[in-house]
Amino acid sequence: MSSYLFAIDEKTEEVIVSASAKVSKKIDFIERVARIQNEELYQSVVTLTKLAGAVEFDLKEFKAIDKACQGLYAGYKRGK
Fold first, then answer.
1. pLDDT of the chain along its 80 residues, tens only?
2. Cα(23)–Cα(3) distance, rounded to whole angstroms?
């Protein structure tokens, strides 16, 4: 099973989506999702990115937002 990895390209206002199998160190690029295509996903990944860089990292909160991002992206994929 793969989990999606998310990053923000602030210059192009896109979510960069990659995937990695849980037991693999290999990361595969999947796609870029423009902010205008899915504002909710974009904002969730922005929040996830801020949490990842927080001085007082909260793993529970990070996992909750990551789960939300996974779900939002899965819903986006189904709707394509």
1. 468 999 999 999 999 999 988 788 899 999 999 999 999 999 999 999 999 999 999 999 999 999 999 999 999 999 87
2. 11
How many other C-beta atoms are found inside a 10 Å radius of the C-beta of residue 54? 11
**What is residue 26's DSSP assignment?**
-
For residue 31, the SS3 value is strand
Q: In 1-80, where do the E strands start and end?
A: 2-9, 14-21, 28-34
Q: How far is CA 43 from CA 3, 20, 48, 52, 65, in A?
A: 19, 22, 9, 14, 11
